[in-house]
Structures are given as structure tokens and as C-alpha cells.
Amino acid sequence: MGTEIGGASPRSRLRRLPELGSYDTEEIYAILDATTLCHVATIVDGLPMVLPSLHVRVGRTLLVHGSRSSRLLRSMTESPSVCVSVTIVDGLIVARSTFNSSMAYRSVSVFGPARLLDGEEKEAALEKLINGIIPGRSSEVRPSSESEISRTSVLEVTIEEASAKISVGPPDDDDEDVEGPAWAGVIPFRMIAEEPIPAPDGAVGAGTVPVPASVRRYRERGS
Ligand SMILES: Cc1cc2nc3c(=O)[nH]c(=O)nc-3n(C[C@H](O)[C@H](O)[C@H](O)COP(=O)(O)OP(=O)(O)OC[C@H]3O[C@@H](n4cnc5c(N)ncnc54)[C@H](O)[C@@H]3O)c2cc1C
């Protein structure tokens, strides 16, 4: 086990099924890096709000971006701390009772402050975001215009502390159910990248622009 990044405070310590929990930095980073989909929770006008977003992890931070007018992004910098949740659903755990049925998953909760980036730091973060989502893509497209950059907010969430919860199955049935007639097992799920579909318009639609290396690599990687 490596260094731990959570579990020291009640905020990040699992109480329910703590045996499924992990605070190991590398294990948490692996889950954060296995998807770019997160949900960000903050307080907007005094009320809680959770919205989905893209994220890319850079060291002990998460980068998120969006429209400069996004209430979510604005409220993130106004809150002393935000909570970012990342979930990968790996399957359905079908137990012999509905009570013991659940999902197979890897999920992470991150807690920490968010900071608005500006100037060169913002531009570098935007590059890391695009290359974190599709590695190598930034060198295949035109540079973002000043107006596009100014209409975009980029935030850095410091991973102050974090927790992971990992449920893999098989079902954990009650002893008296195990010899019963009901089927039990796991239905695995997988999110995969399918064959890319070219845009129907312009030169791509006319078939003169081949699928670029970044998109081919992404497809070959599978997700
Ligand atoms: C895909 C999916 C489906 C789920 N379905 C259900 C459901 O239907 N019903 C249900 O009750 N629970 C479900 N869970 C589990 C749920 O996320 C909570 O872990 C559980 O409800 C316990 O809540 P609690 O407030 O008692 O957690 P506590 O253990 O009190 O939480 C304390 C701290 O532990 C950490 N923690 C708790 N849960 C997680 C987590 N999932 N991932 C990372 N860190 C965590 C956080 O840091 C949190 O602040 C599901 C989880 C996933 C990923």
C-alpha cells in the first residue's frame, strides 16, 4: 500500500461498508484517471447543486472547465470547498434476494477548494484538459482564439482529501439463500469506444480528411 490521501477526517472516512473503502493515493488516482466524467457538488444561492462535468487529473489536482457564465463554476470558487464524485459502473450484482442485490463499481469522492485559473496557467490547463481527454488532439486542431479562451473558465480543484469505494461482487448472499433456487451472479458492464463516425459536412464529409492519429489511438485503446 502507498500513501493515503483520505480517511483521516469524518468528511472522507467511510462508515457504511468501510471494508470496501480505500484511501490509497495510487488506487484513487487510477479511478480518477479511468474516466473523464465526474459530478461536482457545490452550493448555489444557498442550496445544493450537483452537475456532471468533464475532469482531467493533473498531479494532486482536478481540472474542470466550462462557460464563463456557468453558475456551477462560479459557485465553486465562492465555496471554501467542493465535492467531486467519480463513478465507474462495472456491473450489476444479482443476488439471490433483492435486498443483497447491488452494483459493481469503483467510485471516488474528492474534497477540496477550487481556484479559477488565469493567463498562461489557464492556457496550459486548457491544453492539459484536451490532451487528457483525447491525447495528442491539441496538435491536430487550430489554436483556440482569444475570444474562445476568454469565454471559458478553467478551475483547479486541489485534492485535499479523497476516498474510494470499490465493489466487485460476487453477490454476498445470506447463508440460508445460497442453496435456494434463485440464480445469482454478476452482469458485467463495459463502456467502449465504437468505430468513429465522420462529420457529414465539409472536407471530412467529402472523405478527404482521414481519421487522425489521436482518434485512432482512442478507438484502439477502447474507451
Ligand atoms: C453506482 C453506485 C450505486 C450505488 N447505489 C446505492 C444505493 O442504491 N443505495 C445506497 O444506499 N447506496 C448506494 N451506493 C453507495 C453509496 O455511494 C454510499 O456509499 C452509501 O449509500 C453509504 O452512504 P453514507 O452516507 O452512509 O456513507 P458514509 O460511509 O457515511 O460516507 C462517509 C464518507 O465515505 C466516503 N464514501 C461514501 N460512499 C462513497 C462512495 N460510493 N465512493 C467514494 N467514497 C464514498 C465519502 O468520503 C463520504 O463522505 C452506490 C454507489 C455507487 C457507486
Structure keywords:
223 residues; alpha+beta; Pnp Oxidase, Chain A; seven-stranded antiparallel sheet; four-stranded antiparallel sheet; 7 helices; 11 strands; binds flavin-adenine dinucleotide
Dominant shape:
globular
Give the CATH class of the largest domain: Mainly Beta
Mean pLDDT: 96
Strand content: 25-35%
H/E topology pattern: EHEEEEHEEEHHEEHEHH
Q: What is the H level of CATH, i.e. the homologous superfamily of the largest domain?
A: Electron Transport, Fmn-binding Protein, Chain A
Class by alpha and beta content: alpha+beta
- CATH topology term of the largest domain: Pnp Oxidase, Chain A
* Quaternary status: single chain
Low-confidence stretches: none
What portion of residues is helical?
Answer: 10-25%
The CATH architecture term of the largest domain is Roll
Counting DSSP E segments of at least 2 residues, the number of strands comes to 11
Annotation field: number of helices = 7
Description:
The strands form 2 sheets. Strands 1, 2, 3, 6, 7, 10 and 11 form a 7-stranded antiparallel beta sheet that branches. A 4-stranded antiparallel beta sheet has the order 4-5-9-8, with helices on both faces. It has helices spanning 25-33, 71-78, 119-133, 146-150, 175-178, 202-205, 213-221, and strands at 21-22, 37-44, 47-54, 56-58, 61-67, 82-94, 102-112, 114-116, 152-158, 161-167, 185-188. It is globular, with a radius of gyration of 21 Å. The model has no long low-confidence stretch (mean pLDDT 96). It has 7 helices and 11 strands. Helix content is 24%, strand content 33%. It folds into 2 domains: 18-188, Roll (Pnp Oxidase, Chain A), CATH 2.30.110.10; 192-223, no CATH class. The protein is an alpha+beta fold and 223 residues long. The structure holds flavin-adenine dinucleotide (FAD). Flavin-adenine dinucleotide is lined by residues 11-16, 87, 89, 103, 105, 107-109, 163-165.
